[in-house]
Specification:
- It is a single chain.
- The protein is mostly helical and about 160 residues long.
- The protein contains seven helices and no strands.
């Protein structure tokens, strides 16, 4: 079980961090902060660079925390928040599957994050190494995830009318 948790955390976490680095640095074929910021402007997030940086930093930080199994549900809650905003603003109108740019990928990241938060990081984690695992009671885990959902709702509420090209 612990090996499986480690593998799931590592893969989902590092892929999410890589996804954020596309936005922030332009790595792995990404558009960097300028390109991503311009795209965010078309979605109604203004100033675009500010929101793009926030999303990118959230993806990188959340992904690394998840991969390391550090700070329990905090990384998954950050990922959940960013994925809700992505699903609603970019993917929802396109249906389910990735072939039509649907919600499939953000839904998978969000679901994996919630599942890993609820399961706990396992033996092969920084939290276990530091003895922090008992801190993450079910109430604290659920509370962190609720804060992630609330942060997504605030972000969506701050969104302005999307710019049409």
């Amino acid at each position: 079980m612990h090996e499986g948790l480690f593998l799931a955390r590592l893969i989902f976490g590092l892929l999410m961090a890589g996804h954020g680095s596309q936005k922030l640095f332009g790595w792995f074929g990404g558009y960097g902060l300028n390109g991503t910021g311009a795209f965010f402007e078309t979605l109604g997030f203004r100033p675009g660079r500010f929101y793009a940086a926030g999303a990118a930093i959230g993806e990188i930080l959340g992904g690394l925390l998840l991969a390391l199994g550090f700070l329990g549900p905090i990384g998954p809650a950050i990922i959940l928040s960013v994925m809700i905003v992505a699903a609603v603003t970019v993917h929802w109108k396109n249906g389910v599957f990735v072939t039509s740019n649907g919600i499939e990928v953000p839904l998978l990241y969000a679901t994996a994050s919630v599942a890993l938060a609820l399961t706990g990081p396992g033996r092969f984690s920084v939290d276990a190494l530091l003895g922090l695992t008992p801190v993450w009671t079910p109430a604290i885990v659920v509370g962190a995830l609720v804060v992630g959902v609330a942060a997504a709702a605030v972000n969506l509420a701050l969104r302005r009318t999307p710019v049409t090209a």
